[in-house]
Amino acid sequence: MPKMKTRKSAAKRYKVTGSGKVRFKKAGLRHILTKKNTKRKRDLRHTGILDASEVKAVKVLLPYEF
Fold first, then answer.
1. CA–CA dist 61, 11 (Å, integer)
2. For residue 7, what pLDDT band results from cuts at 50, 70 and 90?
3. Cα Rg for the chain, rounded, in angstroms?
4. Sign of dihedral through CA atoms 15, 21, 22, 25?
5. What domains are defined for the chain?
6. pLDDT tens column, 10-30
7. What's the average model confidence in pLDDT over 26-45?
8. What phi, psi does 15 have (nearest 5°)?
9. Type and span of the H or E element at 47
10. Full-model pTM
11. Confidence (pLDDT) at 60
12. Are the beta carbons of 24 and 47 closer than 8 angstroms?
């Protein structure tokens, strides 16, 4: 049976932690930053953890990461 291909677009957007959680970069920190308050911009800098209900969809895209 041939190897499964990894979706490269998903591989660039998601990283799997050692405990199996999926990290992603939060959106909204690229432009139009003047109207966003400092607390919001500071929160957007950190990576987010994907909800458990959505992890199943990412597992299909990244077959060798889990």
1. 8
2. very high
3. 15
4. negative
5. 8-61 (4.10.410.60)
6. 999 999 999 999 999 999 999
7. 98
8. -130, 145
9. strand 47-49
10. 0.85
11. 96
12. yes
